[in-house]
Amino acid sequence: MSWLEEGERETWLERWFLLLATLFVGVNSVILPWGQGEPWRDMLVAWIMWGSLMWGAHGVLRYRLGKYDPFLLPIYALLTGWGIILVARLAPAFWLRQLGWVGLGTVGLVLMGVWPGVVLWLRRYRYTSLLVGLGLLLATFVFGVNPSGFGATQWLQLPLVSRVFFQPSELLKLLFVIFFASYFDEERQLLPVQPSGWGWGSWPYLVPLGLMWGFCLLLLVWQRDLGAATIFFMMFVLLLYVVTGNGRYLVIGAILLMIAGIVGYWSFGVVALRVETWWNPWPEADNRAFQIVQSLYALAAGGVLGEGVGLGFPDYIPVVHSDFVLAAIGEEWGLVGSLTVVLCLMVLLTRGLRVGVAGQRPLAHYLAIGIVLLFSLQSFLIVGGVSKLVPLTGVTLPFLSYGGSSLLVSSLMMGMLIGVRQLAPLPTLPATLYPHQKRAIKNVQIGFFCLWGVVSVVLIYWGVVRAPVILGREDNPRLVEEELRLRRGDIYDADGELLATMVGDDGGRLERIYPQTGGPAVGYYSFRHGVAGIEEGADGLLRGEPVEPLDFWAETLWHQERRGQDIRLTLDLERQAELEAQLEGQIGAGILLEVPSGDILAMGSWPSYDPNLLDETFDELVADERSPLLNRVTQGAYQPGMMLGPLLWAELVAESGRGGDYLLEQVVGLGETVMVGDIEVGCEVAATAVSRLEAMAYGCPQPLLAATASWDREYLADVWARWGISEAPPVRMAVNEGRREVVTESPLVWSIMGQAEMTVSPLQMARGWGVLASEGLLTGGHLLAGQKELGGEWEVVPPLVVNERVVAGDVARAVLAGLIVEDGGLVYGREVVAGPSGERHQWLVRIEEGLETGQMWVWVIVIETVAE
Question: Can you tell me whether residue 530 is helix, strand or coil?
């Protein structure tokens, strides 16, 4: 554009930047309602109205002024348009009001820009205008209100207008800048040409300023508007530094600010609260520091690209539409959005200072610099507070936050910044700044650039570096939202009957329901109380994890719903109902295991619970002494007693190498008892019983102990491991881990008899007996049979372990042949004394054979009883 004149270049630059701002606001105005499933017509109309205002302001200003900085109006347009979208997103009831304030503010901007005489009029009556501002501030002590109904009463309700409020402290900021600028302009001859010493010679010049500043500051502290008080103080110090070029004012100001902070910390509870929650907010994350912690969660959740407009959860932050809009930007537009805001503020600083330096009279210099300092200080305090760089001060982010007072006053200041270069020079005073003032302005610019650089690093730290850690905290409510919107996969039984599914609208909160009883094998899923059963064991599949890279980016960028995979279990609902009927009303557990496949066809634990009512009844279930939440099948620990005798006899048969003949040999002492501590263990046998086979069938301990007399502890431990008795069963749910070392904690004979510390779960018992039923093979206990993705085909899920040979098939058959057969099935049961208190429980094993399929089914049931 070198062929264009300077004014034409500025016009083209402004139009290009305005066009970019218009496109950004327009696209987001359509995406916001579309993403929330709401009509987009209102936001489209709002975009048209906002665009008309901005392009109309551009036309009027270019027509009346010709030349002015081409970056200021586009920045104003982008931030105000973005602010309307934010208010529509965060406080939908207020977005029309925000649009109205933008319209009024834009009119004020144009008037301030095209009529710089307003500034000259305010210069002439600077004391009067400042006193009016102070009077309005004083009026809040009597007539002040708070639109929210609680908190500091810093607003005045405008007369004759319903529900329209104005905050005098916002107007006072502008009047304060005008007062300083006009005072420095009028008394410029008192300023030193070169900075020297501590500036004591300037005291007569500084006394009126200091008194006025002190009076304003006192009122603001009384009113608890500490954010405005901090801005006034820092702006006062920086202006003194700029006009005098004396860096010692910065030192004095820093000392006074520290003193004020210390006094405020010990004198005002609100100051102490903000300092403490800034220093370490995490211990008070759910209480006093809730706001800042939620802000950090929002920045972390946004990451680099953001959740998308309307798709995050910034409304967890109290008053997010006012003080914490940057956190909302960080969550929904990501680092790209928050750093764009920082870039706009840095450009505003640079171009504003350039306008100040290029002014044609001292008033233009000081007014532009004062306005830019006010914008920069206010923005830094709130952005730094939101990102935990500095303590919160409770100020708004210019043009972006909701608030008519702030938006209107900021618009007027932007208009003054645009039109200030039109102020005519005075022939009596030089228009240029002193060299030391130019150096001071340059130093201020460098200082703010460093501050914004630190802010950017902090935003990157929370949004990228620290994000994984803090997002994983249990008090992060976004975890709840993410979980409630996850469409967990369905669960089916072996015949395709639905056992568990999600209900609810897509994109909304979903609920897990259980149409059919699946017992402890299915378990439960609850965000509040966790998962159990296969819901826990197959949690990754049901959640759709791990996520492929392409799917991850689709979910992240386009917020596609994640749907877990469906799974199919080996359960048979008919067998499940049969087992639960046997257990109902008793305390115990049961399992039906098919061998040699290892499929679990039924699993029951009583008392049980209804997973559909888990959240409502959880406290009662936890308090119930019968432990209904415990899956006794996999987590129960019961003494097996002589229930494991046939397994050890099978080992002895295999060891002898003589097959079934070994069991037919005669023995003595079948009915003799054995003492286990104070417990007497024996058996009842027929008078004619004489063989090992009969000793095994009746569960007599003495012949077994005699046959295993040569065994040592290591050998016995190896036997229990090979039969799956002392190892954790390989099934996809919480299990009794098993205790291989129990054979060393009590006399060996007690362990052989299944007494003392020797305990097993019903699943371990079923696996051990399954070796006999499957002709010597140890199965794993298979529950998860298949999986499939949405719209896909079922894929077979193999068992976790391969069946292992424990004993030869003829040995297993010989042992089973010697046991009792009832009603077409082999039944073996024993009552076991569980401890010195005399507590007992009843074991029952039943083995059935499928005549057509050749499969074998192992039923194991244990019933708990009370002490005698």
Answer: strand
Give the CA diameter of the chain: 136
Q: Are strands 491-492 and 566-569 parallel, antiparallel or unpaired?
A: parallel
Is-contact 399 382, C-beta < 8 A?
A: no
Pure H helices in 421-564: 435-460, 467-471, 477-484, 519-522, 534-537, 539-543, 549-558
For residues 339 and 330, what is the distance between their CA atoms, to the nearest angstrom? 9
- Amino acid in position 8: E
Cβ proximity of 729 and 763 under 8 Å? yes
CA 449 distance to own-chain centroid: 33
Other C-beta atoms lying within 10 Å of the C-beta of residue 716: 20
Cα–Cα dist 740/724, whole Å: 10
Strands (E), 643-699: 674-676, 679-681
Residue 611 and residue 188: Cα distance in Å, rounded?
81
Which tens digits make up the pLDDT trace of 12-54?
A: 889 999 999 999 999 998 888 876 666 677 888 899 999 999 9
CA distance 462 to 473: 14
Cα separation, 327 vs 81, in Å, equals 17
Q: CA angle at residue 608 from 602 to 610, to 5 degrees?
A: 100
The pLDDT of residue 853 is above 70: no
CA angle 657-659-661, nearest 5°?
115
Rounded percentage of the chain residues whose pLDDT exceeds 90: 36
Of 760, 788, 749, the residue nearest 845 (C-alpha): 760
pLDDT at residue number 553: 45
Structure tokens given for 838: 């005399």
Residue with tokens 């916001």, as numbered in its chain: 32
213-263 residue pLDDT tens: 666 566 556 666 667 778 878 888 888 888 878 787 788 778 877 877 777
